[in-house]
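Customer escalation, tier 2.

The customer says the design service returned an amino acid string that "doesn't look like it belongs to this structure." They asked us to rerun it and document both sides in this ticket. The original structure tokens are below, unchanged.
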């Protein structure tokens, strides 16, 4: 089968005023304004993979009410399954895979990851106890840990600096589309599937909430096949002398305050995103009496409309700000988004009218979408190219630990204690507000460091 190549955009060389090839001035302007379709041919496959990864990761949020009833879980246990179990392995694997990003064949690495997390999704659908479901979510974390470091490595090397923000925003938009796809497609399946679905052995008859885990693996096999035939020319050219000479930890120690401020702001954003995604469907089921299918479809529709618009707008805004504020563009976007988040979250979580809550949710999802590319882009611009794989892996490990490991279980534990004072809605507002204020403090500290 013929190899498929990801073509590189013109890359800058040590002479900052030179571009290879060196076009005329009017040609350089046309390159900067060119359509993303012509400039970023590999980003769309990576975005599709990000979509599938997040769909598989968040499918459990849709079926949480049915899973809780069938397996007898508490809200706290549901939070552990959704967040902490996934993070337990994801974080360790993210750290360990950083050194592999610059050495292995990246497309084949991604294909192997897809197959691992597909097996984990099937295991989630077949789990019959808390321990089995915890193990399945841990395997899912193992499979998905290296995807973003690998993807960012490819994007950062092939995308011109003038549109790097939009390149990363297309990739991050895939995640939001994955969440909404899980809710929309999963909610639609839950509404039409019969009481039990007969699968071939060894699955046997399964209830709908289990069956959708098995069905979700079908598109994964197509993606894995595409990556197996994808060529990675950079791996062929990499030699021993091209490997990083500077240790990542030494670089981080030298710039610890800048990285700490940026990580606090980014982690707060991720915590808010994951908390809303994990509990929004449950909120609409409990507070407004919607069915699981209705709540999943409503939330998915809001996400699929608002989130991609936020991500793409965020990439455009960052690229625009970077022309005059290259050092502070990303952290400015993070600060602005975190400052506006608490009042919108309060309307979303505490309103007694479903239409008002959904409208606030759309605004919140759009706002968080604006912030999403900023965290990853700011990290790439702060970090030398030879260290990006390692430092990106460490960064993702930290923000994922905070976002997944602390956010969902914190809301679950708080909800159990606030059942007489607003329950899940008040718990969401409290956790989101505290996270936003902490993240804003980090963003403001980062602005002072880069001013």
């Amino acid at each position: 089968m013929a190899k498929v190549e990801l073509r590189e955009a013109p890359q800058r060389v040590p002479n900052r005023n030179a571009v290879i090839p060196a076009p005329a001035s009017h040609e350089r302007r046309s390159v900067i304004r060119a359509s993303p379709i012509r400039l970023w041919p590999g980003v769309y496959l990576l975005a599709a993979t990000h979509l599938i990864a997040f769909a598989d990761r968040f499918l459990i949020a849709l079926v949480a009410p049915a899973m809780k009833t069938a397996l007898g879980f508490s809200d706290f246990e549901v939070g552990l399954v959704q967040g902490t179990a996934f993070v337990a392995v994801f974080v360790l694997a993210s750290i360990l895979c950083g050194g592999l990003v610059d050495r292995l064949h990246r497309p084949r690495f991604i294909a192997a990851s897809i197959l691992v997390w597909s097996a984990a999704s099937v295991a989630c659908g077949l789990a019959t106890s808390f321990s089995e479901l915890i193990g399945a979510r841990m395997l899912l974390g193992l499979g998905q840990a290296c995807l973003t470091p690998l993807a960012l490595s490819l994007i950062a090397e092939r995308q011109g600096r003038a549109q790097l923000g939009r390149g990363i925003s297309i990739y991050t938009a895939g995640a939001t589309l994955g969440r909404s796809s899980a809710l929309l497609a999963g909610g639609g399946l839950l509404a039409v599937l019969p009481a039990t679905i007969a699968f071939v052995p060894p699955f046997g008859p399964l209830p709908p909430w289990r069956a959708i885990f098995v069905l979700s693996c079908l598109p994964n096999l197509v993606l894995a096949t595409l990556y197996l035939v994808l060529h990675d020319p950079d791996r062929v050219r990499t030699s021993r002398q091209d490997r990083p000479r500077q240790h990542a930890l030494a670089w981080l120690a030298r710039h610890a305050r800048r990285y700490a401020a940026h990580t606090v702001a980014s982690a707060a954003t991720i915590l808010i995103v994951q908390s809303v995604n994990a509990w929004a469907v449950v909120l609409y089921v409990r507070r407004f009496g919607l069915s699981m299918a209705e709540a999943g479809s409503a939330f998915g529709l809001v996400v699929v409309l608002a989130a991609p618009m936020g991500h793409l707008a965020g990439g455009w805004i960052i690229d625009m700000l970077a022309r005059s504020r290259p050092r502070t563009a990303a952290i400015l976007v993070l600060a602005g988004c975190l400052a506006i988040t608490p009042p919108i979250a309060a309307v979303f979580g505490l309103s007694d009218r479903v239409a008002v809550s959904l409208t606030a949710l759309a605004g919140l999802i759009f706002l968080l979408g604006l912030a999403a590319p900023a965290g990853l882009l700011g990290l790439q611009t702060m970090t030398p190219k030879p260290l990006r794989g390692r430092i990106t892996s460490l960064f993702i490990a930290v923000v994922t630990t905070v976002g997944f490991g602390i956010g969902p279980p914190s809301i679950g534990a708080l909800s159990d204690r606030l059942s007489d004072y607003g329950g899940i809605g008040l718990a969401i507002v409290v956790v989101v507000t505290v996270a936003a204020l902490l993240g804003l403090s980090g963003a403001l500290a980062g602005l002072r460091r880069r001013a």
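Tier 2 assessment: The sequence is consistent with the input. The two ends are 52 Å apart (CA to CA). Confidence is low (pLDDT under 50) at residues 1-37, 236-245. Sent an explanation to the customer and offered a walkthrough call.
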